[in-house]
């Protein structure tokens, strides 16, 4: 890992929707250098993270791939003492525990966020504060028609962050529901999460918190451009080299 000069970055998923926008922003930044890209379908890029990190000296791996390969990519980077920014969904709580342990053992940092949009990070922060005052809530996860993983990383991260405050109150336990208990959604870190997969959505995340006689709805909607995720990803790239172990959530970088 270099000790000075520009931060050397490898982007996995460099030809993808978000990865390509992040790569272009890295090229334009004076303090960052794009040293490698990984994309199996692009002959100008490396075909795997392991291959790329063996060929170049990188300080940070940025992963915008997919749920099927993200864990292997993160492990490959950590084994080579390369810090990681994880923008892909698909890692479970157990996976993150494994990643945290390996990162601490290798003395490097990992920053992972279900959504690198600054406004999505503000949603998480606001929801955590609201949960300190309201006992009941549920999460609604909207995503594109063909998104294969459910819930989205944004919704999972939100549920896990709310669990740090408390377990929400439930009027009727799910296992006592009459009819089809699955209609009550999936229990993620103690919160009921409902995943909709429909055309026209990109990623939207909503949490509805309630008390007797009142409700508070907080919602983030992403448009059809990757631009909202670029600034947050660059913030994480610049922050990750000063950390050891796993940091979950972009909102933790906003102070």
What is the count of β-strands?
11
Counted by DSSP, the helix tally is 7
Order of helices and strands: EHEHEHEHEHEHEEEEHE
State the helical fraction: 25-40%
Alpha-carbon Rg, integer:
19 Å
- Alpha-beta content class: alpha/beta
The fraction of residues assigned to DSSP E strands is 25-35%
Q: What general outline do the C-alpha atoms trace?
A: elongated
For the sheet with most strands, the description reads: 6 strands, parallel
**How are strands sequenced across the largest beta sheet?**
2-1-3-4-5-11
Distance between the termini: 26 Å
Mean pLDDT over all positions: 95
Low-confidence spans: none
Walkthrough of the structure:
- This protein has 255 residues and is α/β, with parallel strands linked by helices.
- The chain is built from seven helices and eleven strands.
- It has helices at residues 17-28, 49-55, 70-79, 93-106, 118-131, 153-163, 227-240; strands at residues 7-12, 32-38, 60-63, 83-86, 109-112, 136-143, 186-188, 191-197, 203-211, 214-221, 245-248.
- The strands form two sheets. A six-stranded parallel β-sheet has the order 2-1-3-4-5-11, with helices on both faces.
- Strand 4 (83-86), helix 4 and strand 5 form a beta-alpha-beta unit.
- The protein is elongated.
- The protein starts with 6 loop residues before the first strand and ends in a 7-residue tail after the last strand.
- The model has no long low-confidence stretch (mean pLDDT 95).
